[in-house]
């Protein structure tokens, strides 16, 4: 199985980017992994929230293959602890999914088209985090999940 993260907008913080890259590299030891960054929408100040979400949604949909399973990182999604998340990934792998795609939306969330196409929603927390922090948290949790599945000493309970 391949895992891909699609996110809107670049990571401004060099420290966050360095950590995201570290975990992305580590994930690569277990599965093919890709972080696909969609540039911020130009002239977004001239758009309504709905228009911005629609434009971002169109760009996200263009990045998907027909067989991709798209899961949104959404505050209203299912919550997991780390062991449960590792089980979730294992079930996805067992289902024979070619590519699992986690999507991090823009500042206003997702368009209706994205919600309709999504095959699941995962929440990292009930708290609100910057989209840049979410990238770090999901890459670290994917890495942690694989170490749990391989019974490696990274995760402690």
From TrEMBL:
The keyword Methyltransferase applies. Belongs to the RNA methyltransferase RlmH family. It comes from Neptunitalea lumnitzerae. Its main location: cytoplasm. Keywords: Cytoplasm, Methyltransferase, rRNA processing, S-adenosyl-L-methionine, Transferase. GO terms for biological process: methylation. Homodimer. Specifically methylates the pseudouridine at position 1915 (m3Psi1915) in 23S rRNA. One of its GO terms (molecular function) is methyltransferase activity. S-adenosyl-L-methionine binds at residues 73, 105, 124-129. It holds the Pfam family SPOUT_MTase. InterPro entries: Alpha/beta_knot_MTases, RlmH-like, tRNA_m1G_MTases_N. This is Ribosomal RNA large subunit methyltransferase H. Its EC number is 2.1.1.177. The gene is rlmH. Coiled coil: none annotated. It is found in: Cytoplasm. It catalyses: pseudouridine(1915) in 23S rRNA + S-adenosyl-L-methionine = N(3)-methylpseudouridine(1915) in 23S rRNA + S-adenosyl-L-homocysteine + H(+). It is an enzyme of class 2 (transferase).
């Amino acid at each position: 199985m391949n895992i891909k993260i699609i996110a809107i907008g670049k990571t401004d913080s060099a420290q966050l980017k360095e950590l995201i890259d570290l975990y992305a590299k580590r994930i690569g030891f277990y599965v093919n992994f890709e972080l696909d960054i969609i540039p911020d929408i130009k002239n977004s100040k001239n758009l309504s929230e709905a228009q911005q979400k629609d434009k971002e949604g169109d760009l996200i949909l263009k990045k998907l293959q027909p067989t991709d399973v798209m899961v949104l990182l959404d505050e209203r999604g299912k919550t997991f602890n780390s062991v449960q998340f590792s089980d979730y990934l294992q079930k996805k792998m067992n289902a024979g999914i070619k590519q699992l795609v986690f999507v991090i939306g823009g500042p206003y969330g997702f368009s209706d088209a994205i919600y309709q196409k999504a095959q699941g929603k995962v929440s990292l927390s009930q708290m609100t985090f910057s989209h840049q922090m979410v990238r770090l948290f999901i890459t670290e949790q994917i890495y942690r999940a694989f170490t749990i599945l391989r019974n490696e000493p990274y995760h402690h309970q």
